[in-house]
Every structure is written in structure tokens, then in C-alpha cells.
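pinned: reference chain
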Amino acid sequence: MSTIDILDEHDDIDGIALIDIRSGDRSTPFEHRVEPVSKTTRAIKFLENQPDVQISPAAVRRIAFGAVEPGLLEDARLERHRVETGWLTVITYRAYTLLLSPAIENDRLLDKAHYAADPDASDDQRVLAMPTAHGTDATLVYADAMDDLLAAIDRASMRVRGNNPQEVGRRIVERPLTAVPATFLNPGRHPDDDLNIVDGNSRWASCTAGIKVPASSINPTTASDLVQLLPSHLMRLPLAERRDLVREIVKGAHGDINAATGTSKAARAKRDQAAKLLNAMTVPVQVIVGYTDDNPDMGMRRFPVAVRSLLMRMNIGVKPFDASSQNGVTAEEIVTALFDSGELGDNAQAVRDVLLGRADVTDAMKSLGLNPAFRDLRFTYVVQQLTRKEPRLNAIMAAKLDKRRLQVAHRSGPIVELGLRSYSSLPKETMASVRTALDTGCLWQALTNHEWTVENIDNDQAVDDLLERADNDDIPARLLLGVIAMVTLVTSGYLLAPGGSAEQIVGNIKVMRAGVGAVIKTVLDMKEGRQVLADAIKRIRADQRPRWWADGHLVEREKWKGSDFNAHLRLAANHGFAPEGYQNDPTATELEDKALTAFQVSLTTAAANLDDLIAMRKKNGTDTELSWIGVEPSFRQLNFMGKDLARISEDEPR
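pinned: its C-alpha cells
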């Protein structure tokens, strides 16, 4: 049968060599041969008797059945790899490509997936639930329906085929893939276990990109037409049938080589495509077979976290994640670490579920006293939980973000990605605009300086009561009002990223070109501003345009678009609310306050830039110290700035 469809791009006289992958006697001509099942018995027995191999008999069988040379597993050396929470035990061997499956994850698509936390999310491209730990085995457990898992795996595999193609076929794959045993709680009619890749999906996808098999090889009831082989096809097959499919493909490729004799271009092309197929049919793989936590009391609970840590490591090279997806992965690592460390309070499971947003949050939100129908309340809860100032929480966040000290700006990325999971059904263009606005800076320092909680503000009267307390200098109430208003305005398109034609809209008067958080913070300090923000929450929730403050009361601006409201809010942040917009120059005190804010923002930016430099040096392996000549001006400037600031500041409280 014809098993591969590769364009004949080259007309090499020598053709493509079939690479010998044997480790033993090479005196006989090489023919790739799938060993009989009887050859795996001793390997299975050896692995089952190793105390450091903490996987099920079914997983051991998959390893032995998938090995190109199962005899080499009979005395295989187990290795230990260090991860953040403990040690992973791995075994390395050469495996048949088709007896491994791609990663079960949406991690490359976290910023585009639909989340259960969004009441309007569709089932299309729904994000998967995070895997849980097995009670005793080094195995990832997946609770999603098998059809959802298979659809996600196919999507991810097709994406990496296009985004990060690898040169496979003329050479064999030499860099090992990493796989982990997985088990499925809802397999339906499919096998309930597999070996899934956590590092090397691009290599696997390129190995299988051109393979086509008769549909009858996958489903005997279908026609014999050739179809593109997908991961879901393989994962539907029982292990023995999957291995038989590999044998059939290998046998067919060798048959093509032997049958295509002669020197014609057609004969050479047929031999070449068969050789490329056989060279891509095996890959080196290290399979995680055990885990030892640094805290013995944790058992296997943190095994998924240990495996997940490989994800970020594998994406610093050829094809890194988009920043938003990276922030999503980091955010999930932060939440999981906080949960494992007992930093999420008495109702930790509900808090974790609400923060992650992957599963239905209805019951979890209710248990926290929040109305699950209000997406802005969940986003606000994410902000509150990840801006708390507890030392242990901050230490965990700093470690996950790879920061020496945690600045308010550092929290923004993970908060945005978790918060936006309540809005994952927004149109692609709208989501891009919202993410851009929030990424410019959605936090302000007071959120971490003060303790505040999220109340169930789910009706107009609750908003009015919150406004009354905010007007009476209740700082927690003021912060809560500000965050709900910011989320509501940004996600509805009434508060945008700085830039564009804002100044032209308001008559070429200077507006505040800071992040959305700074705008909200400034407006929140004005009585008229709090009126506008509270009214905006109520009206946008009712699918109405927000009103503006003019002539001492709120008025409708029917012709205003989102950009008009944004421009006037930024104008008010700079110049206050006058009866008809800008009329009075800011006072000297207001100018001084703005100058101090600008100075403090610049310090935060400078500290973040220094952290980025240190992280860059760490990533590049740079250990040479910077020359004093190069850094002396910076040291002098910092010294002078410290003395100048001390002259105009109160003494530090003792």
C-alpha cells in the first residue's frame, strides 16, 4: 500500500538513505522489523520489578510494545531529573513514533480557547480541564470526555505541523522526546490509557505529517480510501492493533523499496519516499516512569506540576509560546502552587476553580458568595486574590515569575489571562483590543497596599451602596468600585489602550496617556469620577451606553462611540470634570501629585527592566560582571535620586 505522500522536491542521484537504527550486529543488510510480542516479555518483567518505576502494568506494556529494540529495556538504566518540586525518574529508549501520542493540552492556545468560566462560551475549542494526579502512579489523569480530548489533540498537532515544521525523513530524529503515561476517566469505546508527549510535539507532528493510511486500517467499516493519519486515529486503536498498524506501514514501505527497482526518476522517487517514511517511523524518547516529591507527605499530588514545569522549559527555543499563552501557563502554575501550599484559604478548592476558570465555576462562585452570572465579578476576584500582600503568596508568585522582588506590574500578565477567561467568547478582534488595553497596565499600587475583598455587587442597589461607601473614604470599597468599573469599561470597549486620536477627539487637549489602571486610579479619586464609574457599571451591565458628567449631573451622549468615552475619561484624568469638559488648568497640588505618580511609575519600569536584564543574563548563561565604567553613571544617578527624594520625604517610621 502507499503509506506516505511527499512531494519529490529533489532529484538526487544517490537517493535518500535508509538509516540503520540497530544497536547490535550490523553485518547483515538492514531491514526495519517490528519485533514479535514475545520479545517484550522480559522487558516487561524487568520494568515491573524496578522499585523506582511507579506506573501501571498497562503503561509498562505500552513502553515495551513501543520499543524498537525491546531487548535493550531488559537492563535499562533509570535516570533522575530534577524539577522544582522533586525528582522525575525517566527511562530512555528508541520508540515507534506511532506508539506515542501528542500532548493532551491547549497550552499553545490558552489565549484563544473557550473557557467554562465564560457563561457565553461555546463548546467549540473548549479548553480542557487540567490533569490531576493519580493516587499512587506517576501518571496524569484526564477527566474530559474522550471526544473532547481527541479533538484538542488533533487541533494542537495540526497547528504545530504548520507553525514549526522539522526536517525529518532525510535524517532520523536524534533529539529525544519526553512522554508521560496518561489515563482517561471517560474513555468511552476507546483505550483508557496512552503515552503522551510533553516535549517534542513538533518533531512528532513532522514525522507523521505525510502519512496516509487506508481508512480500513483505522475503522474496518469504512472504505479503503487513503486518509490523513491524525493522533485521534491512533488513540482509538487498542494497543495490539496500533502496533499491527505500525508493522503494516513498515512492511509496506520496505515493499515499496524492493519493488521500485531501476534508475528512473519515478523508481527513485518511490524509494526515496519509502526511505523517508521509515526514517521517520522511530524517535528517541524518555518516558517519565516515577516521581519523588521533596515533601514525602505530598505523595503524587504535585506530579502534574512537575510535568507541567517541562512545558515552559521546552518553549524557550525554536518556537516560543505567544506572550499571552505563556502568561496563561505561568498563571496556572502560580495558582496550583498557591493551592498546594495552602495559601488559598479555607475554601481553597473553590478559590482554585474560580481562578483557573477551566471548569464550570457556578457552584464555586456561589460558595464564595458571588453571583456566577456576572463575569466582571470573577475577573475582579482574580485581581483581588493575586494582589494580596501575604509574604508567602508573594514569594511563590515571584519565584514563578522569575523575579527577584515582586512589583505590582509583574502581576499584570497572569491576572489578565486568568481574568479574561470569563470573556473568552468575545470576537477575536474585540479580544485583541481588550488584551492590549489591559496589558498596558491594569493595576495600581493601592491594590497591593490595602486589604480589600470582593463583594457580591450584582444589582444596581449594591452598586449605589458601594458608591456611597467609596464617597465616604472607605478605601476597600473604592478599590472594589474601581476594579469592577475598569473591567466593565475595558471589556465593553469604552476604555482603550493609550494612543490613537484621543487628543483630536477632545479638541487637541492633552489627555492622560497612561495604562488603564492609572486612568481608573486617578478618576477614582474624584467625586464626579466615582459617579461616572458607578453609573457605567450599571448601564453597561444593562447593555446601555455609559453616561458622562456635565452640568453637575450625568447626561447621555448618544453620538459617542467607545473611543469618545475613552478620550473624555482620559481628559478628565488629566484635568478633572468641569461642567463642559476642560476649562480650568490643574492646580499646583494636582500637578505635584501627577509628577510624583509619574516618578513612581518610572521607578517601577526601571526595576522591571533591571529584572529583565538579569533574567536575560541567566538565560544566556552570562556570568561575567559588568564593567564599573559602564555602570558607574547608573550607580551615581541612583545615589543622587535617593538623597533628593529623602530631602522632600518624611522620615521612615520606626
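why pinned: The chain has 25 helices and eleven strands. Residues 588-620 form the longest helix (33 residues).
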